[in-house]
């Protein structure tokens, strides 16, 4: 059995598919329902690093909870995308294809938030969420590599 054959195993795909459904439901609730109300106006940021820059350079202006939620929450919550997508969709196992798919998914979420006025459209969220997916992808690739090294040579 090769080091990445487990990633193609039916049982693995079923487990990851179930986890993905739970993840999508959780994220849908978090992004569109939990504590969210429809705003009166559209709120958006199209300028890259406009909200990230102050979080990094003016840390003292933010309470710790808001700082962690806005910076790290946007990264950590999207780590599963970098794992689930390549496991479930073989064609999305390259870094470039994963990146394109993740950006499209996140852009769609942000656009939906803008149109429904639930949350805000923020290009910095796309950047941070994509970074989270990249972390998940790198973690998956490391896991596959380690598993490959553990396999006996014939």
TrEMBL record:
It holds the Pfam family VanZ. InterPro entries: Teicoplanin_resist-assoc, VanZ-like. It comes from the Bacteria. Keywords: Membrane, Transmembrane, Transmembrane helix. The chain crosses the membrane at residues 12-33, 71-89, 96-114, 126-144. Residues 21-143 form the VanZ-like domain. This is Glycopeptide antibiotics resistance protein. It comes from Paenibacillus amylolyticus.
